[in-house]
Amino acid sequence: MTHMTRKATRHISQNEGLIFEKSSPGKAAWKLPPLDVPEVDTAKLLGKHERQDLGNMPEVSEIEIIRHFTRLSTWNYAIDLGMYPLGSCTMKYNPRVNEFVSRVEGLANGHPYQPEKISQGALRIIKTLSDCLLEITGMDAITLQPAAGAHGELTGLLLVRAYQQSKGNPRKKILIPDSAHGTNPATATTAGYAVENLKSNDRGMVDVAALAAQMNEEVAALMLTNPNTLGVFERDIHEIAELLHAKGGLLYMDGANMNALVAKARPGDFGVDVLHLNLHKTFSTPHGGGGPGSGPVAVKKILEPFLPKPVVIAKADGTLAFEYNRPQSVGRVRAFYGNFGMFIRALAYIFANGPDGLRQTTEDAVLNANYIRKGLEGVYDLPYSTPSMHEVVFSDKLQAKKGVKTLDLSKRLIDYGFHPFTMAFPLIVHGALMIEPTESEPKEELDLFIEAMKSIAAEVEEDPQFVLDAPHNTRISRLDETAAARKPVLRWKP
Amino acid sequence: MLKAIGVRSVNDLFSPIPAEYRLSRDLAVPRQMAESEIVDWFKQRAKENGDGYASFLGAGAYSHYRPVIIDALVQRGEFLTAYTPYQPEVAQGTLQAIFEFQTMISELTGMEVANASMYDGSTAATEAVMMAVRVTGKSEVVVARSVHPEYREVLATYATHQGIPLRTVSFTDTGRLDLKELEKAITGDTACILIQSPNFFGTIEDVEAIAEIAHQHGALLVVSIAETASLGIVGPPRAADIVAMEAQSFGVPLGFGGPYCGVIATKEKFVRQMPGRLAGQTVDKKGKRGFVLTLATREQHIRREKATSNICTNQALVALMVNIFMTVYGKVGLRELARQNLAKTAYAADQFSKHAKVRFAGGPRFNEFVVETSEDPYAINARLLGQKIIGGLPLKKFYPELGHAALWCCTELTTRSMIDTAVSLVAESEHSVRSKKDIEHEEVVR
Questions:
Q1: Would you call A6 an interface residue with chain B, using a CB distance cutoff of 8 Å?
Q2: Contact yes or no for B154 and A189 at CB 8 A
Q3: Mutate which of A37, A123, A157, A450 to disrupt the B interface (most B C-beta within 10 Å)?
Q4: Residues 6+ apart with CB under 8 A from B360
Q5: Cross-chain CB nearest to B346 (options A45, A78, A235)
Q6: Under an 8 A CB cutoff, do A50 and B234 touch?
Q7: CATH 3.40.640.10 corresponds to the domain B69-326
Q8: Which of A38, A134, A472, B202 gives the lowest tally of CB atoms within 10 Å of its CB?
Q9: How far is residue B125's CA from residue B118's CA, in Å, rounded to a whole number?
Q10: Which residues contact residue B316 at a Cβ distance below 8 angstroms, ignoring those fewer than 6 apart?
């Protein structure tokens, strides 16, 4: 049976082997200019350190390289092809002007150690973005050095640690709700803390009574995502902050879901002491197949002395400079100043929106999520009826009766021309379907998505095996991941 | 849509946020701009940013030519706007590219496996050290002072909070690691030695000799490579246990320090302690070759607090740039590219040595060298800047013991005329300092 989809259809895609399988001696895609200095005797200069052979490195022509990567690219799903409803990943449109300005000569080829006198443009970009992000978050100080969200989390917890240490004791534990993303507990361990789980209540929020019982002088901080991974705003946020603060703990906010708050509410106003942002989520820098990201960390005044060095300061003459003399700093978390190219893109996004655009972006993101929720309520189980912000989490409870799990549903969704939703978490929902449309999607795309999800639910009723065997229309069918892990083949060999 | 949802206004959807925290004013950020204004604004910033200068800066960020097909390909929306390839059926492009990347990095470093990327060279080196701590179950770390100073700072940040003591070993007058001092610093509790080769001064370390010392004491050797272009002509550190790289040299723009591309490569037997994503080959239900992210039980999304690292997002698109660069130059081109770097550097070092002191002359080097001048290099650089040349990096900030020294770097993009201009300015400086000294000397004699 085939419920034809309105969004996707089959098309010819080219087969393509590994680049090494195309290689043959004498083919080349490079050309160097003639040397304008004397040739050197490499054997004399390097002696036993001279490399004799580059092994299996490829030798191919330029057209082969272009075709190779172009063919590979056609095997990918991408935002540019359609909606990417990954919950908590905020797969929004990546404006092309961002790419253009990040490649302007002078910005793209600036050396990190060039004199400050001729780095004023880069410093101005860092300063302007910092100021915008501080205004958006309602915080007092910021570092842009962390290279991604998890790196920001680590930086944030190191700040917490340094702060607690300055009060006499770094403390032992970080409290983390059971709904949290996996990086939160992994980060706490990396920062040298023990992780203590915090149970959610029946509305999917932090159980304030449980927190009160678990909070003591051993707890350095609570790591909270708000809205949380269910897309639910933690209503008791202020009480939570007060409970922590009363016993000397800090409130860390994972800003993964800031797309629900920008221009509508500011973490700094509701008791957050430290948070990280993901420029590759909220601020539209591209995911690029897994990175690069950028994870700025914004803090309240009490944490400012501990920020990684250097920080950007304005000098009396109005010029900008890096300040290294920060005796209480936790140190560096990355060489140079962070993923500067992402700063350019994020700032271009803020410029393109302005105050009105940023507000509308957030409103549209929440509107879109609620539209999907309404459209699929009853078709899929909604484990928590608490109002949704920018994302909605369903479960596979109804379909599981027919033996079809969230993974199977997601694989069938691929046939309909969409990328799957998030399934790996939150752990508090068994068989989660976490859906975040973002503001980028027009109503027409949302309707197609709802239609596809309804159609899949109907297929589960009529012919569950068909869904279990999905995807049917992709280049390859489901891959044997167990075999891949049991006998890892991690590189090509001749 | 509001009607379908059953609310009157979009603001009703924000009612879960307590009223006192809802923002009732406009954000104080710049007003909305047109695309043309955005482009203008950034072009203005670029003008304030040293555009049009010739540069002798290296020190972990290298200026190499970037073939234009790199940007043509990485800007394809299917690469640019794709997510992490957790759904292999719709991400084979990214996954196969990572698999090829892992293969080429393994090939170039002389290691057996490589991961899909780390944030950058500094975090890769740090994570490699943490990995060595896990593999050996020991907790002390010995670090060469000739490792990039900012890499060492990052390591110190991580190590402090994990209670890992760091011991630093200095360099000799050849610029290489002081092996005698190393013998004294290493103990039975040492998890690993971290060195960089070519090191921060451009000097190539004797990796085998250092590996032997490490292994005698049951420690691992971690080799950081900040200048990957060296791998075209410098023997790979096969004796190392873990190689941590910064692959920026391979087609990644300088970009004022990022995004760059860290990578970790190692021996197969250590792969389960490795941080970061890995692509592996497998087959689909019909037996067709395909690729998946694998060994995920090392990672945070499965193992949470027991993961090998907290890394999630990596540098995938930058790794793709590196991948395309390696494919373009390939087996022959990478060697020729490295040869040109070597030749330019040999010429420059030779010219400088006629007028000033080139330090660490005894050890083999790749594309960087240290020049010691009588005058403060900041003063010399100020004059060079007037000629639109950015001179070598003054080392006083990182190595006060080296006095008036600066780290100069040449690549295939450095022209002979650039070198000659810089050398003549340094020569002028030396000459004037010398004649000033002569005058002072005469005055004293009188």
A1: no
A2: no
A3: A37
A4: B171, B173, B174, B175, B176, B201, B203, B369, B370
A5: A45
A6: yes
A7: yes
A8: A38
A9: 10
A10: A287, A288, A289, A290, A291, A292, B84, B94, B98, B116, B117
Query: Looking up tokens 């610029």, which residue turns up?
Result: B175
Q: Which residue of A has its CA nearest to B50?
A: A118
Chain B CB contacts of A353 below 8 Å: 32
A271 Rama class: left (phi>0) / alpha (psi -120 to 50) / beta: left
Contact B233 A330 (CB under 8 A): no
- Is residue B337 within 8 A of residue A32, CB to CB? The reply is yes
Query: Taking CB atoms and an 8 Å cutoff, what residues of chain B touch A79?
Result: 77, 81-82
User: CATH 3.90.1150.10: which residues of chain B?
Assistant: 331-445
Substitution target in A479, A481, A482, A486 with the highest count of B β-carbons within 10 Å is A479
Q: Which chain A residues have a beta carbon less than 8 Å from that of B35?
A: 97, 352
Q: Averaged in consecutive runs of 10 residues, what is the pLDDT profile of chain A (494 residues)? A: 71 93 96 97 95 96 98 97 95 97 96 96 98 98 96 96 96 94 91 93 93 96 95 94 97 96 97 97 96 97 97 95 96 97 98 98 98 97 95 97 97 96 89 97 97 97 97 94 94 95
Report how far residue A10's alpha carbon sits from residue A94's, in angstroms, rounded to the nearest whole number: 26
pTM of the model: 0.97
- CATH for A98-350 (3.30.2090.10, 3.40.50.720, 1.20.1440.20, 3.40.640.10): 3.40.640.10
Q: Which residues of B touch A89 (CB under 8 A)?
A: 83
A304 touches chain B (CB under 8 A): no
Please give the CATH topology (third level) of the domain spanning B331-445: Aspartate Aminotransferase, domain 1 (3.90.1150)
Contact (CB, 8 A) for A147 and B258 = yes
Closest partner residue to A97 (CB to CB) among B38, B311, B328 is B38
Measure Cα distances from A146 to A114, A334, A343, B118, B217 in Å.
21, 7, 12, 12, 35
The closest alpha carbon to B421, from B394, B387, B376, belongs to: B387
